[in-house]
């Protein structure tokens, strides 16, 4: 079986030579264990600091060891009463074609209810991230105007649709016309190509003449600066991610306009999806009804073959994905 190992910790741009494809022999499953063949692998921006050797809320990847990440696979051999051959399971044992692991650490998913890959995207942590950010961090209300950054990405495209289903007006930003078209197609009321406007704040103001009540932060940098300027009084920011900063080799200067937080009584709160698992039941209930009524659809960009993992991951930083970036093994 093949798996991807990190060659060394690095800062700066992601390059293919930092990864290597290793061939390993898997043991026979012991009592209580299962052999799983992964079918879908997730690549996510949060993996980037783990490659720099940084301990954040999660440990760094170790050179010479298989990397980790979300994966959905099929049980091929089982020596556990909890799982049978043919069952689908979700795990954090991604970046590899197959693995042997104790059944108790794996989460069984229903591949008849939803396609298996949806558990890595809209119905998985990606969807819950968008949901928790909107529901709990921002507390989005009907009739409010939301700005969703990285709107054509995984969290962004889920969030645009959820916010529309919650009755908000949504302005999206994304890089390139194909992406802004996609944001409109999934329901955004306005979409701005941030690469094609000389002044982001002016473009947002034109799209939201009555101002913005909430900003979903996926990008950081110039996007955050613009948000601090365009938010209305009592505006809220859900700080979900700041992907424009993850490859920085030196710390970047902070926004020059932070006094807006004081003068407009803004609220900015960071969050990590794993802190909000208590919302899971409510999330699945809302998501199923939104999906059944056709309000929410999932969209993926799929690369084929485990050897494409580094390219798929790198693509997150060059904007190669529409919707959730996945690799099909
Ligand atoms: P995406 O599918 O959104 O992929 C990343 C996208 O970011 C790219 O497609 C690209 O879109 C955009 N991007 C990349 N570099 C830049 C840049 N320099 N400036 C502006 N946009 C850029 O990934 P996810 O949906 O998985 O993640 C989105 C954000 O949410 C990330 O910041 C991530 O860290 C965060 N996150 C946080 C979680 C949490 O628990 N707090 C959980 C999951 C994700 P474009 O072509 O439009 O530029």
UniProtKB/TrEMBL annotation:
Q: Which GO terms describe its molecular function?
A: oxidoreductase activity, acting on the CH-CH group of donors, NAD or NADP as acceptor
Q: Which InterPro entries match?
A: ADH-like_C (IPR013149), ADH_N_2 (IPR041694), ER (IPR020843), GroES-like_sf (IPR011032), MDR_fam (IPR045010), NAD(P)-bd_dom_sf (IPR036291)
A Pfam family per the record: ADH_zinc_N
Question: Sorted alphabetically, which SMART domains does this protein's record hold?
Answer: PKS_ER
- Report the domain of life of the source organism: Bacteria
Q: Which PANTHER family match?
A: PROSTAGLANDIN REDUCTASE, PROSTAGLANDIN REDUCTASE 1
- Protein name, as recorded: Alcohol dehydrogenase
């Amino acid at each position: 079986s093949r798996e991807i190992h990190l060659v060394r910790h690095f800062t700066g741009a992601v390059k293919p030579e930092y990864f290597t494809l290793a061939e390993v022999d898997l043991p026979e499953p012991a009592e209580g264990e299962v052999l799983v063949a992964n079918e879908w692998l997730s690549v996510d921006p949060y993996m980037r600091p783990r490659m720099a050797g940084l301990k954040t809320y999660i440990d760094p990847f170790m050179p010479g060891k298989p990397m980790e990440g979300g994966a959905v696979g099929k049980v091929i051999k089982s020596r556990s009463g909890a799982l049978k051959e043919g069952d689908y399971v979700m795990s954090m044992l991604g970046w590899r074609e197959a693995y042997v692991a104790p059944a108790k650490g794996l989460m069984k998913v229903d591949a008849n209810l939803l396609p298996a890959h949806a558990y890595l995207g809209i119905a998985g942590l990606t969807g819950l991230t968008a949901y928790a950010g909107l529901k709990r961090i921002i507390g989005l209300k009907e009739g409010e105007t939301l700005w969703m950054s990285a709107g054509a990405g995984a969290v962004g495209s889920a969030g645009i649709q959820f916010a529309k289903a919650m009755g908000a007006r949504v302005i999206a930003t994304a890089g390139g016309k194909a992406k802004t078209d996609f944001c409109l197609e999934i329901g955004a009321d306005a979409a701005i190509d941030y690469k094609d406007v000389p002044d982001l704040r002016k473009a947002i103001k034109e799209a939201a003449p009555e101002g913005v009540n909430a900003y979903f932060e996926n990008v950081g940098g110039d996007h955050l600066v613009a948000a601090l300027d365009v938010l209305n009084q009592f505006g809220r920011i859900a700080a979900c991610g700041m992907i424009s900063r993850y490859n920085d080799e030196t710390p970047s200067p902070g926004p020059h306009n932070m006094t807006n937080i004081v003068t407009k009584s803004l609220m900015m709160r960071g969050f990590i999806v794993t802190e909000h698992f208590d919302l899971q039941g409510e999330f699945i209930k809302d998501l199923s009804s939104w999906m059944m009524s056709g309000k929410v659809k999932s969209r993926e960009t799929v690369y084929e073959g485990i050897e494409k993992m580094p390219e798929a991951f790198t693509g997150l930083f060059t904007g190669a994905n529409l919707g959730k970036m996945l690799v099909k093994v």
